[in-house]
Design goal:
Length: 180
């Protein structure tokens, strides 16, 4: 789908209806019209977000516990000053996720999944099967019906602490539980 959209230039220049014709039929429970609208709306922001993510992957921007926090991410006057200060100060893991979440249609789980999928460790993908395992292992008492952002982060933190305590890296535990 993305290759076709790039080749036809719809990805970069198409309107919502043109993008919609390409995203209809993709999987998931998302509203396809909303997905098409998000693609169009994210065109301006995505290159900046991708620059930051790529810079973290290449080690040009370091993830630090004392780096730029999520609250500071969107207070920067312009992308260039943010890029400069992120190179100097580094980012916290939550600030990196907040940047990805700044894209329309991306929530906690999607941002974590994206960062995890491109090899940036330290994020939990809190999905239904993970919640089931967290209850099974007594890490949480009951499976929530839905998760707010603060609940997501609290559960992720408990899972990280539990992983540290048993000596299994978070990303490996996710893979073990996913494989079953």
């Amino acid at each position: 789908m993305v290759d076709t959209m790039q080749a036809s230039r719809v990805l970069y220049h198409g309107n919502v209806e043109q993008v919609l014709s390409h995203v209809q039929g993709t999987g998931g429970k998302v509203d396809h019209k909303a997905r098409a609208k998000w693609i169009v709306e994210n065109r301006e922001t995505f290159p900046f977000v991708w620059w930051i993510v790529d810079s973290v992957q290449r080690g040009k921007v370091v993830l630090r516990p004392d780096g730029i926090e999520p609250k500071e991410v969107f207070r920067q006057p312009d992308p260039y000053s943010f890029m400069s200060s992120s190179k100097e100060r580094g980012l916290t893991q939550n600030a990196l996720r907040a940047l990805v979440q700044g894209l329309k249609g991306v929530g906690d789980k999607q941002a974590s999944h994206f960062l995890y999928s491109i090899g940036i460790e330290g994020y939990a993908i809190i999905d239904t099967y993970i919640l089931d395992k967290l209850v099974e292992f007594g890490i949480i008492k009951e499976k929530p019906k839905s998760l707010t952002s603060s609940q997501y982060h609290a559960i992720e933190q408990r899972l990280k602490e539990w992983c540290d305590g048993i000596g299994i890296p978070l990303h490996l535990l996710d893979m073990l539980w996913w494989r079953g």
